[in-house]
Amino acid sequence: MARIRSLKPEIWMSPQVMNLSHGARLLFIGMITQADDEGRGTADPRRLKAAIFGGDDIDSASVRRWLDECSTNGLAVIYEAQGHGMLYELCSWKQHQRIDRPSKSAYPRPSANTRRTLDGHSTNTRRGLVEDSSGIGSLGSDGSDGSDRTERARGAHETTRQVEQSRPAAGEDPGAGENHQAMDRIQALYPKGANPPNWMMALRHARSLVDDGLAAWDELVGATERYARFVASSGTLANVAAHNFFDRRKGNYWQQGWDPPPTKAEQRQSADVETAKRWLEKSS
Questions:
Q1: For the chain, what are the domain ranges?
Q2: pLDDT band for position 41 (50/70/90)?
Q3: What's the CATH code, domain 10-145?
Q4: Which of 77, 90, 155, 148 is nearest to 116 (CA)?
């Protein structure tokens, strides 16, 4: 049975919570209040809609997508248990909720073969993420969000699945088609680097720039093309991951010119010009 729960102020600055859409963010907070003393609860979209969103004009399909966002970001494990249907278990629950005389959960714990998304696909969600002070499980001891380590563990297949799940459903967002086409183009153009990018996070940051009127999709595609040419001409791997490239908090890399370094011929020409200038100065 749900009881009064604690929320730390730092929760809003957690990278994982910031990755969520507004609806998914509210759902996650509601799941905390609805969870039993072991951090578990029903993941039935209809019941969560009634318990958290009340009379709001929100359909169960939206709640279903938001649940999958919470799962993809490592905030909750979504799983199925015989006799209970779909359930959730909140990650890092016991470390951040102090409960006097906790009651035993009526729901079983998730196991490796029961974890799944609401559409039946395996989530690959891991509970061993580095935990931050907000109880969301993201910051490392160096203050980094740990996304590169997580992404390496999940692999390329998980990255592709994350991008697909983070996209809005058809009919929900008038600009969804443009978003998809632009991000597909950006993914195809973006140079490979030493640290694989978190494409779900990159999509969030890119959409935020567009939604806030700071950039248009064609500008972001153009910035990606410039950066790809810069990396190709320098003969090195990309040292800016895509999820940082579009993150306004990381220096707005997408706004930089990314002029390619001069070629050897251009360097020789520049040296000849400088030599000629010095000779003329001495002769005058």
A1: 10-145, 163-255
A2: very high
A3: 1.10.10
A4: 77
